Amino acid sequence: MTSSHKSKKQDLPPTAWAVLGLLSFPGERTGYELKKWADSSLRFFYWSPAISQIYAELRRLEELGYASSARSAPEEVRAKRRYAITAAGREALSGWAADSAEAGPPVLKHGLLLRVWLGHLAEPARLRAMVGEHLERTREELAAVREAAREAAGVPEWAFPALALRWSERQHLAELELGEALLADLAELSPQGGTAGRQAGGDAPTPG
Questions:
Q1: 68 with 84: CB under 8 angstroms?
Q2: Of the candidates 84, 70, 77, which has an alpha carbon nearest to the alpha carbon of residue 29?
Q3: Which of 38, 92, 124, 157 could be cross-linked to 42 through a Cys-Cys bond (beta carbons 3.0 to 4.6 Å apart)?
Q4: pTM of the complete model
Q5: What is the β-pairing status of strands 67-71 and 81-85?
Q6: Largest CA distance in the chain
Q7: CB 93 within 8 A of CB 24
Q8: Distance from C-alpha of 176 to C-alpha of 135, rounded to nearest angstrom
Q9: What whole-number distance in Å separates Cα of residue 130 and Cα of residue 134?
Q10: Contact 162, 156 (CB under 8 A)
Q11: Which residues in 136-158 are b (16+ Cβ under 10 Å) and which e?
């Protein structure tokens, strides 16, 4: 691998590797099909790129020689462009997937907890309602994870995505447990706990 080629490899963003990863499974797929699969797999443990991001990365991957595409047969009602991974793309992806140094630690950005952190500016009832809404969304996501896991079960090519979905199921179950515990914590606060801090003085709760 030349130094310029290696530099291009290292400069690829995670979205590009995710799209290339979707292409690494057997078969050719359109950008729309890649988006559907990302929505039913990747989003449960990482994120799902927008369709515009997917097409932008497909163009980038083609320029690098990591992916190829071909137009569908002219007899089809609507012409489609299908993408596939190349040998060079599979080699690069294998190297990236094996590099644990690039994986990094998991990043948690919990929008609900940011609002709970600012609970001194909110009404207690509204905070509890927000947690309840979060629990309901999590239950819906858990059902979607389980449906995706059922579809992946028994398909040899999807054995490792099935493991990721199994992990996602456990993560959503843990999120439900954490949410219920948060509701209990909020219930222990005084009825005025969400508003008293608006006039309270004192330093911020920092160590030292």
A1: yes
A2: 84
A3: 38
A4: 0.79
A5: antiparallel
A6: 74
A7: yes
A8: 6
A9: 6
A10: no
A11: eebeebbebbeebbeebeeeeeb
**Gap between the Cα atoms of 115 and 92, Å rounded:** 41
Could you give the CA distance from residue 13 to residue 65 in angstroms, rounded to a whole number?
A: 16
- Residue 145 near residue 196 (C-beta atoms within 8 A): no
Nearest CA to 28 out of 84, 80, 95, 79 is that of: 84
Q: Is 10 within 8 Å of 1 (Cβ atoms)?
A: no
Q: Which amino acid is at 30?
A: T
Identify the residue whose tokens are 């099935």.
162
80: confidence class by pLDDT, cuts 50, 70, 90: confident
pLDDT at 116 over 70: yes
Chain center to CA of 38: 9
Q: CA-to-CA distance for 120 and 192, rounded, in angstroms? A: 9
| Separation between Cα atoms, residue 203 and residue 208, nearest integer Å | 11
Amino acid of residue 118 = L
Least confident of 55-64, 69-78, 104-113: 69-78
Distance linking the first and last C-alpha atoms of the chain = 52
Contact of 52 with 59, CB cutoff 8 Å: no
Q: What are the residue ranges of helices labelled H in the chain?
A: 3-11, 14-23, 31-39, 51-64, 87-97, 111-117, 124-152, 159-188
* Residue % of the chain over a pLDDT of 70: 82
- CA dist 146 and 124 (Å) reads 33
Is a pLDDT exceeding 50 seen at residue 199? no
